[in-house]
Amino acid sequence: MSVATTANYLNAEKGIKSWLFTLDHKRIGLMYLFAVMTSFFLGGVFALLIRLELLHPGQDFFTADTYNQLFTLHGAVMIFLFIIPAIPAALGNFVLPLMLGAKDVAFPRLNLASFYIYVVGALFALYSIVAGAVDTGWTFYTPYSTTTSTSVISMTMGAFILGFSSIFTGVNFIATIHKMRAPGMTWFKMPLMVWALYATSIIQVLATPVLGITLLLLVIERTVGIGIFDPAMGGDPVLFQHFFWFYSHPAVYIMVLPGMGIISELVATFSKKKIFGYKLIAYSSLGIALISFLVWGHHMFTSGQSEFSSMVFSFLTFFVGIPSGIKMFNWLATMYKGRITFEAPMLYTIAFMFLFAIGGFTGIMLGAISIDIHMHDTYFVVAHFHYTMMGGTVIAFLGGLHYWWPKIWGRMYNEKLARVAWAFIFVGFNVTFFTQFFLGAQGMPRRYYNYLDQYQPLHMYSTYGSWMLGVGFLIMAYYLIYSIYKGPKAPNNPWGALSMEWQTTSPPIQHNFEDQPVLEHEPYDYDTRMVVNDELIKKEDVKEKEDINV
Amino acid sequence: MEQAEKHPSYLQHHFADMAQQTDAAKLGMWVFLVTEVLLFGGLFGFYTFFRAWYPEMFMEAHKYLDVTMGTTNTFVLITSSLTMALAIRAMQLGKKKQTIAYLAGTLFFAAVFLVIKYFEYSHKFHMGMLPGKFYTFDGIQAANPHIFFSVYFTMTGLHGIHVIIGMIIITWVMIRTMRDEFSPEYYNPIELTGLYWHLVDLIWIFLFPLLYLIG
C-alpha cells in the first residue's frame, strides 16, 4: 500500500486554494513550518555572514553599519519570526489536537488568521530589510531607536503584528486544552508536551500585550515625539527597557518551555520507561511561567536601576533554576535503567540535556550581580543565550521535527544521514559557541565588528564552527526534503510511543481519528504496555503467552 | 435526519456538542479580554510612573480636561452597556426586533461617545494642548505638561480605537441578527460581543477618574 492511495489530510483536498484557505490545524501547522523554516534559513544566513566578518579583525566584508544591521536582523528574524512560533505554532499546531484526541483546535478560523497575521508581520519585517535595515539590535533600546535613521518603525510594527499572531495561538491553545480533551483524559493524564504548550500559552497571553503596547509607544514616540522615552522632554529611556524586558524575559520561556515539552515526550519514548515525576514536570512548567514574570530586571543590572532592585531581581533569577533543575533531574531519572535506543530524536534529546545544562548554569552565573557586572555585554552573554536558545530550543525543535516527521508526512527520513547531520550540528554548535564563553570571559564585547588581535584564534574557531553548523543543516535539509518525496513509507507508530497522536494513521486522516478516541492508558504507561508493529500490547498478555509456551 | 438534528448548522464539525462549543468560545473570549487588560495595563503602568514623577504637573494639567463632557460620556457609555445587556436578554427570549433595536441603541450611544470625544479633542488641538513635541499651550506652569497630554491622548486614543472596533463588531452581529442567524438556542456571538463591549466600558470607568477627577 503506497501513501498516495490512502486518504489523508495531505491528499484529501487538492489545489493551492485548499491550502491557503484550509482550516485544518495540520495544514496550518505545515504552512507555519514552511514559514518558520524559511525564516530560520534567512536568520542562519545572517549568522553565517556575521561570523564571516569576525573571522579576521578589522573590516573584511562589511562596513560597521552593515554589520550592525546584520546582527540586528539575525536577532529580530530568529526571535520574532522563527523561534517564538517554531514549536507552538508549527509543531504544536500539528500535534496538539492529535495528542488530545481532538478533531481540531478550538478555533480553526482564528488559527488560520493567526498564520496570515504572521505573514503580514513578516512582510513588515522584510520591508524593513529592504528599506534601510534596522541597526538597533533586536531589543530596540531607546534613545538610539528613536533617533537612528534606519527603518525602526516597520520592524517594530512587524514585531507588534507578530505579537498578535502569537496571542491568538495562545488563546486558541488554552481554550483547546481546557475544552477539547478526549473523554477520559484528565489534566494529569495529558502528555507533558501539552502541559508545556499550556504554560507557554499562558505566557504568550499575559506578556505579549505588554510588548505590543511598548512597541506601539516606541512607534508613536518616533513619529509624533510624545516624549515619554526622551529625557530631554521629561521622559525616561530606562522605562522602555523595563517594559521591553517585562515581555522579553518571559518570552525566552515562550521559546524554551515547548522545547522542554518535546524533550519530556522524547525521553520517555526512547527510554521506553514511564516518565519520572510526571506531576513535578507538569508543575515546573507552570512554575517557570510564573517566575518568568518576576525576573526581568536581571537584564538591567548596569542600566541604572537601584541596587536594591538588582538584588531582588538577582535573588528571583536564581529561583528559575529550581523548576528547570527539577525537569533536568526527572529526565535523567527517566533514562535510568530504561531501554534506551539512539534514533535521531533521542540524539537531539541527549544533546539538549548537555547543552541546556551549560546554558542554564551560565544563566545562574549571569544572574549573580557581581559576575554580571563584569560579564554584561560580552560574548559570555552571547554564548549563554545561544546555549539556551539554540542548544535548548532549536535542538529540541529539531528533535521534535524528526520525531513527528513520519507522522506529518507518512514517510521516514534517512536515519544514517540524520545521525551524520546531528553530529555536525552538535560538534559545530559547541565549537561555535563554547569558544565564545572564553572570548567573553577575556573581555570581548558583543555587537562589535572589529576586535583586538588577541581574540583572533578563538574568533576563528567560532567561525569554523558556524560552517560545520551550516553543513549539518544542509545535510538535514537534503534528507528531510528527499524523504517527503522518496522516503520509505512510515508505520503509524515508528517509535512505539503511547500518546494519542500515534494511534491514528501516518499521515493522519483529515479529521485525525476514525472515531472519537477514548483514553485507555496514560501517555507514559511503558511499564504495562508496549507497541509491536503498530499493535498496542499489554505486557501482562505477553507474559501469559510466554508462560503458556513454557 | 437524526444526524441533522444532532448537528445544527451553527455547531462546528470539530465540537461534540453545543455546550462544548459555547464553553470553548466563552473561555477564548475571556482569555482574549485578559490580553486587552494587559495591553491597557501597560499604559496604566506608564500613567503610574509619570504621575509619581510629576504629581504637581498632573494636578495642574488635568484641570484643562472638560469634566462635564467626561461625565456625560461616562453616562453615555454605561447606558450603552445596559442596551448591550438588554440585547442579549432579548435574544435569549427570542425577540429578534427588540434585539436589533437594542443593538442599534448601543451603536447610537457609542457614536455619541465618539462625537463628544471629537469635540473634546478638537478643543485641545485648538488650544495647542497636544502630545509631546507638538505641545504649544503655555497656560500650565509646572514642568513637562506635554507628558500629561501624551498620556491622555495615547490612553483615550487607544480606547477610542477599541470603541470603533466594538462598533464594527456590533454592526456585524446586528446584520447577522437580521439574517435570522441567531435564536434562543444560539446567540453566543452576541454574548461575546457583549463581553468585549463591557470591557471597553470598564476601561473608560478607570480612565475617567484617573484623568479627569484627580484634583
Description:
The complex is a heterodimer of chains A (550) and B (215). Chain A is an all-alpha fold and 550 residues long. Chain A has one domain: Cytochrome c oxidase-like, subunit I domain (Cytochrome C Oxidase, Chain A). Chain A has 16 helices and 2 strands. The longest helix of chain A has 37 residues, at 64-100. The radius of gyration of chain A is 23 Å and the shape is globular. By secondary structure, chain B is an all-alpha fold. Helix content of chain B is 77%, strand content 0%. Chain B is built from 7 helices and no strands. The termini of chain B are far apart. Mean pLDDT of chain B is 93; it is low at 1-5.
Question: Helices and strands in order, then pairings?
Answer:
The complex is a heterodimer of chains A (550) and B (215).
Chain A: H1 16-20, H2 25-53, H3 64-100, H4 108-130, H5 144-147, H6 152-179, H7 192-224, H8 237-271, H9 278-291, H10 307-335, H11 344-367, H12 369-375, H13 379-409, H14 415-441, H15 456-486, E1 529-532, E2 535-538, H16 539-549
Antiparallel strand pairs in A: 1-2
Helix pairs in contact in A: 2-3, 2-4, 2-15, 3-4, 3-6, 3-7, 3-8, 3-13, 4-6, 6-7, 7-8, 7-9, 8-9, 8-10, 8-11, 8-13, 9-10, 10-11, 11-13, 11-14, 13-14, 14-15
Chain B: H1 2-6, H2 18-53, H3 55-62, H4 67-92, H5 96-127, H6 145-178, H7 188-212
Helix pairs in contact in B: 2-3, 2-6, 2-7, 4-5, 4-7, 5-6, 6-7
